[in-house]
Amino acid sequence: MEVDGLATWWLVAAVVLGGAELLVPGVFLVFLAAAAAVTGAFLLLFPELPVAAQLLSFAAWSAIAVWLGRKYYRENPVASADPLLNDRVARLLGQTVTVVQAIENGTGRVRVGDGEWLAHGPDLPAGARARITGGSGAALTVEPLPTLETHS
């Protein structure tokens, strides 16, 4: 295959990868598209570049592009309208729940919405109210709510 044809394939690959990133955004294919574009440009500048060197160039530029992209996004995080979207426990912090299976020896179950979660905390009887203070994995950490005392 002639050199211009190979360079064209690399540049077409860059456009296809860039288009795929637009159709299915994931902030990853754009880095591969950049690597393919750089490889195609190198092939235009150095027409005798063997296929093995082209593949090595693509791999190296892919790694460099991903590294630079990760560094950029780490230093410039994208603001989210809902930063706790994928952190279910953080979304539950502070909510009041009802103990459905007594917490004994530090473990029981609480009702959260229409579901039940494993709970860790001080011993509490079934029916007691508690507040979510933390969690780990699929278990919540709770603390008892203060009881209201009435004086007659």
Automatic annotation (TrEMBL):
> What's one Pfam family here?
NfeD
Q: Where is the NfeD-like C-terminal domain?
A: 90-144
Q: Which residues cross the membrane?
A: 6-24, 52-69
Does the UniProt entry include the keyword Membrane? yes
What kind of membrane protein is this, topologically? Answer: Multi-pass membrane protein
Sorted keywords for this record are:
Membrane, Transmembrane, Transmembrane helix
Where is the protein localized? Membrane
Q: What is its main location?
A: membrane
* GO cellular component terms, A-Z: plasma membrane
- What is this protein's record name? NfeD-like C-terminal domain-containing protein
